[in-house]
Here is the input.
Amino acid sequence: MNLVDSLNYTPNKLSFGTSGLRGLLSDMTDLECYINAAGFLKFLKDSGESVGTVYIAGDLRSSTPHIMQVIAQAVVDAGFSYVNCGYIPTPAVAYYAGLQDQPCIMVTGSHIPDDRNGIKFYKSSGEVLKADEDAIHASVDAVREAIYGEDAGRFGTDGSLAELLELDTIDPAAEQAYIARYTDYFLPSSLENTEIVMYQHSAVGRDLIPQILRQLGATVHEAARSDKFIPIDTENVKPTDEVLFKELAHEYPNCFAIVSTDGDSDRPFVIDETGTFHRGDVLGYVVAEYLESEGVAFPISVNDSVVQALESRDVSYQYTKIGSPHVIVAMQQLADTYKNVCGWEVNGGFLVGEDYMTDGRELKALPTRDALLPIICALLDAKAKNKKLSELFAGLPKRYTQAGLIDNFPNETSAKIKEVLAADDENARSIIAQCFSSEFGFGSSVRTINSLDGIRIAFQDGQVAHIRPSGNAPQLRIYSNADTQE
Here is the structure.
């Protein structure tokens, strides 16, 4: 009997979203994770990459250590060696692997709940881009066909590996290189006389980030550490999160800022001394200004106050689809014309497309989402301007944003909504008029409908509603811009 016929369940294939693979743990069997990792490695071989070592890391969710073992087994079976970088931020393992000119694999579900997980693949040159996905899919399909046709035995009827290697001892080199990226570029006294609260929860960078901030001179208070995974999302800050931020600000009345990240520490939380969270799209502008960037890229879902601010400074910008792979491609295009090119996402993950030099100190490029650089830059910018963090953000154009999501929303329903509204015909505008009615504060007609990524509806009075299905989860997100927070 071949393997696929011996299984006591029907496998569900994992699929790519805006960044990597994600799925329910019930679907992320050893078999499925192994097939996808082996397929990625086949893609690297077939595309001519010189692969000797694959760097592996993971986040702190409960399922991660086991999936890392499965990934390591796939690497060894493919004829490569691996290095166990341990439980460190996604940008940390990506940065170190890039320095070694080797690929890496990060096991993380980012901000999604603990009953799910994911896998992010990096080539030696950096993130897997959208242009790579067809070839990766083909490689995964080829591996799947070969493994499904094997005799039963290597995998159990539940898809578990019969034999699984123990991970090698953690090599701290990747973590150390990530620390050095910041401590070598920023001055050791740059954050002196600031008190920072690190909301630790279950973020994989919860110990690493305070260590770096202390080396830059800050006094850091660690708060709200959790042994249970907390799926906190920078694009869906909930009322309970906002209450906690206010409580921390009250508990630490002398704090300059409260900072945190999502689960794999590639999305930042920057919260001012009043306990107010500042969204990643606005944070990105502050960082780009601090770094004196001449060209920037970001998704179309960004708060339009960012565009107003950039235009006032005559900085060139480029809209992209949502997802770091799209931002990276736009950054590459901008780098042909502009200096200090960077990019960011609405979730706050910040990308640096080239090396930055300041007084002989080098900040090397990291063209993948990073949470730590925007945290540090925002703090330094406020400190240099002798402003409170709240005052720094108050100086931006007054356009307000709210974002949220509906979880467990069927992907096929999302696709139908997008299809119908993207037509921008009489039917689409009639539906919009019914849903975005005066009852909900919409007093004007539709000006434009943009379908670059999701459906971004601009109304005549300046209000914006942007509906977008998640690329790799059964979720429907909505972003909004208006002249008042209400």
Notes: Residues 30-46 form the longest helix (17 residues).
